[in-house]
Amino acid sequence: MSSKTVYKAIDILDSFTCETPTWGLRELARKLEMSHTIVHRILSTFEERGYVFRNPNTQKYELGIKLLELSKVVEENLKLPELIHPIMKKLALETEESIVLTMLDNNEGLFVKIIESKQQVRFAESVGKRSPLYVGASHKVILAYMSPEIQNRIIDLGIERDAPQLKSKEKIIETLESIRKQGWFYTTAETFQDVSAVAVPLFDSNGKIFGSISVAGPSYRLDHKKVLPILQKYQLDIDSILNKISIPTRRNPNMIKLI
């Protein structure tokens, strides 16, 4: 298999997202600007090996069970959610709100673990969701610690897409500078409607940005000034874990190192 074919196959898998979990053959070929014959051949191979599944009712393709097996292998090897779970649980109990662990991967924010509040707000359906780094507190605190070059690239892309979270480039740059000075950020209704969140950054053993930990809850209930000191207390505990393990995420080497 040539490298071009491999890239095409990966592009096909990457097209399956939380926002678009199913694809018809021709619409996928159109989206990727590929020959539908090539897309069909690759999908057929994936289907045979269990990586995708063709729904007999809709004739559309979905991700297959084999990917669940692979994700389990990654989770077992990583051990990160398991190590951080007790800390997130304590944080959820003390704040009485939901706790979200976000990892930086390929210049996007990825929700990897969520401990839900016992109160009436649920986020479980968002585990595995990717979002641009200019959306929400959990993502902006990550973007704030990346190099100006990467920041500009991500912001420019958001502006091209008319992202509602980006009022102006000057404003977002100013916001990122503020986050770096104060070490946290608070947003309302950027990721979920009527939901607010306060987030702090997490760093790896080299002092570079790894992700974030955030407290999220209904806007009418979440008092970020009250929960922030609790969040910052557990931030140190999580950072101490990250200092001892290797993280297999795709992170740009040009990120800003924490001084």
Can you walk through the features of this model?
With 259 residues, this protein is α+β, with helices and mostly antiparallel strands. It has 2 domains: 3-68, Orthogonal Bundle (Arc Repressor Mutant, subunit A); 79-242, GAF domain (Beta-Lactamase). The protein is built from 9 helices and 8 strands. The strands form 2 sheets. It has a 6-stranded antiparallel beta sheet with strand order 5-4-3-8-7-6, with helices on both faces. Helix 2 crosses helix 3 (36-49) and helix 5 (80-95) packs antiparallel against helix 9 (224-242). The model is unreliable at 253-259 (pLDDT under 50).
Under CATH, the homologous superfamily of the largest domain reads GAF domain
Fraction of residues in H or I helices? 40-55%
CATH C-level label of the largest domain:
Alpha Beta
Structural class by sheet pairing and helices: alpha+beta
Mean pLDDT: 84
Cα gyration radius (Å): 20 Å
Described by strand count, sense and barrel closure, the largest sheet is: 6 strands, antiparallel
What series of H and E elements makes up the topology? HHHEEHHEEEHHHEEEH
Tell me, briefly, the overall form.
globular
Q: Strand order, biggest sheet? A: 5-4-3-8-7-6
Attribute tags:
259 residues; alpha+beta; Arc Repressor Mutant, subunit A; Beta-Lactamase; 2 domains; 6-stranded antiparallel beta sheet; two-stranded antiparallel ribbon; 8 strands
